[in-house]
Design goal:
- It is built from ten helices and 16 strands.
- It starts with 5 loop residues before the first strand and ends with a strand.
- Helices cover 28% and strands 26% of the residues.
């Protein structure tokens, strides 16, 4: 297909409330220049993540950016160009990826993305159903196997705090399908309780009285905790519930401090998970993200993992993206929202 020299993109130059007129703006720009490891992708669908809202709110609070910052950290699209050192991809391939937080995101007609963090999209999913998967899947997989270092054969337990969101939903599925862990997940409403059970949770507990709710299930301590909701707010409960020599991981940063020494008596550990670390630092194992997405696509196409898509918004427009941001900022959504271009 012929590729134009210009494209439309949607971004922001100031950190404004999403309801304000210029919180997101459409503009025209040149297509991104390809580095040696890059694919040029014509984007067909993206999804909304908490990272989009956080970056929009925090990146330009006291300044106006010279160039609009383009968000979008999940995408599905067609390869229409590639760099000199790309391996394993051809023009026309349908791919999915979460991208790199330091580069222009997927809220554009075209995007450049490193092939080492990209994989061919699941063939069994629509563009929108596939678009909600990469960031959450990478986060969940890395948390389980790279940060917590879960061994698939061990018969232990994991508590997932924030089970009904995008990352929580995938973590439940991966833990259920790829490990022997007993999976405990939090949910606070009848519809979210049913959702996490459908994802594969063995026990559903309330985050409002977490310690009591877990112990009402006959579980005194848990071997692993993955917090995707509120690290500081749940800290005391996590300290109480974590087993001796257990491990806690979180993706939610916080202001102020926590009493990390509270874990000392149990010789328990705490580790962060940030899906963008490998691309931020161009780590030696950056291509592991391609491998994770490849394995996830196989699991999806085999029917073992299902898309967490619950809502599809149609059209590449400022209005559609504002709608998506409002939904993620509400903190009450189940599963994931996709935008089909």
């Amino acid at each position: 297909m012929s590729v134009p020299s210009k494209m439309k993109a949607i971004g922001f130059t100031q950190s404004l409330a999403i309801a304000e007129q210029d919180s997101l703006v459409e503009f025209e720009t040149n297509l991104p220049e390809l580095k040696e490891h890059d694919l040029l992708v014509k984007v067909s669908a993206t999804s909304i993540n908490p990272a989009d809202a956080k970056i929009r709110i925090r990146s330009a609070q006291d300044k106006t950016l010279e160039q609009p910052k383009v968000l979008g950290y999940d995408a599905v699209g067609e390869v229409v160009g590639k760099g000199t050192d790309v391996e394993g991809f051809e023009l026309g391939d349908r791919v999915y990826y979460a991208g790199d937080v330091t580069r222009m995101g997927a809220n554009a007609e075209y995007q450049a993305v490193d092939y080492r963090i990209t994989a061919k999209a699941p063939t069994s999913l629509s563009d929108e159903a596939a678009a909600v998967m990469p960031l959450a899947t990478l986060t969940a997989w890395e948390a389980l196997f790279d940060r917590l270092r879960v061994r698939s054969e061990e018969k232990k337990s994991i508590l997932i705090i924030g089970g009904a969101g995008g990352v929580g939903s995938i973590t439940i599925q991966l833990a259920s399908q790829l490990t022997n862990l007993t999976v405990i997940a939090t949910a606070s409403r009848p519809e979210t309780e049913q959702w996490v059970r459908d994802m594969g949770a063995d026990h559903v507990v309330s985050h409002r009285n977490l310690v009591e709710s877990v112990r009402e299930q006959g579980i005194q301590h848990v071997d692993y905790i993955f917090n995707v909701a509120d690290t500081k707010g749940h800290w005391e409960s996590m300290v109480e519930l974590i087993a001796p020599q257990g491990m806690i991981s979180s993706i939610v940063e916080f202001d102020g401090g926590i009493d990390l020494s509270a874990l000392q008596g149990k010789s328990a550990g705490f580790v962060w998970e940030l899906m963008f670390t490998r691309s931020l630092f161009n780590t030696d194992d950056i291509q592991k993200q391609q491998d994770i997405l490849f394995q996830a696509a196989n699991l999806i196409d085999a029917g073992r993992i299902k898309s967490t898509l619950t809502t599809t918004l149609n059209g590449f427009s400022v209005e559609t993206l504002k709608d998506a941001h409002q939904r993620i900022e509400s903190s009450s959504s189940i599963g994931k929202t996709a935008i089909k271009y």
